[in-house]
Amino acid sequence: MLVSYPQHYMFTTAKRACNRCIPVLMLLRHARATAAHRVTDVRCAELRAEGFVSAGQAEITLQGKALDKASQLLFSLAGMGGEGSAFSRATADFITGLKYSTKYNADHTVALPVPAEWPPRPQRDEEAIRRTIRRGEHFDGERNTIELLLYRPKEGQGPFPVLVWFHGGGFCLNRASDQPYQALCRFVSENTKCVVVSVDYRRAPDYKYPTQCEDAYAAWLWVSECGGAFGLDLKRAAVAGDSAGGTLAAVTTLMAIDRYALIPCHQVLYYPCLTDPTSPEIKSHRDYAAGPVLPKDVLAWCMKQLFAQPDQLQDEYAMPLQRADMSRVPSCSIINALHDPLCDHGRLYFEKLRESGVPVRRSVYRRSIHGFIALMDVDAAALEAVTEMCSLLRFEFGMGDPKRLKESIAVVDWVARAAAAGKAMPSSGEAAVAAAVRPAKSHIGDR
After folding, report:
1. Is 233 a known active-site residue?
2. Per DSSP, what are the bridge partners of residue 364?
3. Fewer CB within 10 A of the end CB, N or C, for the chain?
4. DSSP letters spanning 228-261
C-alpha cells in the first residue's frame, strides 16, 4: 500500500512514497522545490513488498480536549492533580509499569557511572569527566549509575552506525525500558541497520535541571569514547528523541559543540519542547491550552518539577530556542503533531536553523497529537512517523544505493514535469516510467 507523506516539503498536494522514496522527496525539496512541482506518486518494487498503511491527510476532529482516563488516574494518584499535591515516584512508575513495562529485549545493558550531582559548568573538568567515563570508573567513589540499553541489528556485520535515543515523559515520567520505547528502538535498529543506544536518564523532581541534560551528554560521551569497542561507527553517530527526549537530543548536540566533543552527524526531534511551554505568546500554546494530552496545567506542573529556579528557563540548554549562534549545528529533522501545544516549537526551531544555514527538514502529521509515536503498534500515523525516521537516518548514514537514488530522482523529476504538462503516467508501473525518463537523465545531473 502507498503511504501518504505529510505536506511539508513545499509541495501543495499530499505525496505518496515508500521509505526508499522519501529521501528523493528530501532532495527535491532542497534542490528545486517550488510551487510548480506536483508529484503525485512514486512507485517502486520495495513499496509493493514492504508498504505500510497510509495515515491519510484529513485533519482530526477533537471531541473535547481532556486527558484519557488512564492518564487522569496516573496524574491523580501520582500527585500531579493540582497545586500543593505531593508527587509520588513509586506510584507513577507503578502505574506506568502496569500500562507499558515489559522484560528487557535489549541486546546489551551498560551501567554508566555518573556523579550524584553534576558540578556547575564553571567548575567542571571536562577532560577528567571523559577519562572517568572512558575507564568506567565511578565519580567521587559513589556508585551512581544510569542505564543504557543497546539494540543491535540481527543481521549484518559491523561497524554499525549508531543512534542515541532519549525517551519522552516531561522529564518526569517513563523509562527507557517501557514497552513502547523498546519496540521503537528495536524497529529502528532493524530497519536502519544501526545500533540504538536508549538512555535511561534520571528524572525530575528527584533530580532537578540540569541533571537530565548532563546525563544525556554523558551517554553521548560514552558512545564517543567507548563505542568503538561495541562495533560502532562513530563517523555515523546521530541523536534522536521524542518530547522531552527531543529536547535532550537537541541539547546534547549543543553541548557537544560547546565542549569540543564528537558532534552528531544528524538529529531527529519528535515534537520537542524548545522554549517555555506555558508562554501565551505562542499560537499552538493558546490553541491547545486545554489539551489533548498536554493541557497548560500539566505543562506548568512539569516545569515546576524540573526547575529549581524560574530563571533557569533562560538557559539555552534548558530551552534551545534561546540560543543565538546555530552556525555549527548539524543537519536536523523535526517531526511534529499538528494537535499539540508544542507544534510551534518545531516550526520556530526549523525557521531558526534555516536562517542559520543549517540543513533542516520538518514534518507535520495533521491527524496526530503529542506522544503519538508511542502507539506505533496500533496507529498508522505513528508507524509512518517512525518509518520516516528510519528513512532519514539511512539517508544521513549514506546507506542508500547511489545508482538507485539517482534513477529515482530522475523518475520523480519526470513525473513532476509530466504532471505540470498534463501528461498521463505510464500504466505499466515503474519500469515504464524509468524507460520514459531515460532521455531526461542528463537534465538531472548528479543531484
Report:
1. no
2. 336
3. N
4. GGGTEEEEEEEEEEETHHHHHHHHHHHHHHHTT-
Which residues 6+ apart lie within 8 Å of 442 measured at CB?
none
Cell of 141: 567513589
Nearest-angstrom CA–CA distance, 54 and 73: 33
Q: Give the residue from 53, 45, 56 showing the smallest Cα distance to 20.
A: 45
- Give catalytic status of residue 243 as yes or no: yes
The amino acid at residue 426 is P
Give Cα separations from 331 to 94, 238, 350, 356, 361 (angstroms): 38, 10, 11, 11, 8
Other beta carbons within 10 Å of 395: 21
For residues 55-94, one letter each, b for 16 or more C-beta atoms within 10 angstroms of the residue's C-beta and e for the rest, the string is: beeeebeeeebebeeebeebbeebbbeeeeeebeeeebbe
| CA–CA dist 75, 69 (Å, integer) | 10
Tell me the sheet residues that pair with 200. 147
Q: What does the pLDDT profile of the chain (447 residues) look like in tens digits?
A: 233 333 333 333 444 445 555 555 544 444 433 333 333 334 444 433 333 223 333 333 333 344 445 555 555 655 555 555 566 676 666 655 554 445 558 999 999 999 989 988 777 888 888 888 888 888 876 778 999 999 999 988 889 999 999 999 999 989 999 889 999 999 999 989 999 999 999 999 999 999 999 999 999 999 999 998 889 999 999 999 999 999 999 999 999 999 999 999 999 999 999 999 999 999 999 999 887 778 888 899 899 999 999 889 889 999 999 999 999 999 999 999 988 999 999 999 999 999 999 988 888 887 788 999 988 877 777 887 888 888 888 878 887 544 544 544 454 455 555 555 665 544 334 444 444 444 333 222 221
Q: Give the predicted TM-score (pTM) of the model.
A: 0.76
Helix crossing, 69-77 with 89-100: angle to 10°?
160
Out of 4, 177, 198, 243, pick the active-site residue.
Answer: 243
178, 215, 340, 344: the catalytic one is: 340
Catalytic residue among 315, 370, 379, 408: 370
Instruction: Dig out the grid coordinates for 18 from the structure.
Output: 515508500
442 is catalytic: no
Beta bridge partners of residue 145, listed in sequence order: 113
Phi and psi torsions of 200, nearest 5° = -100, 70
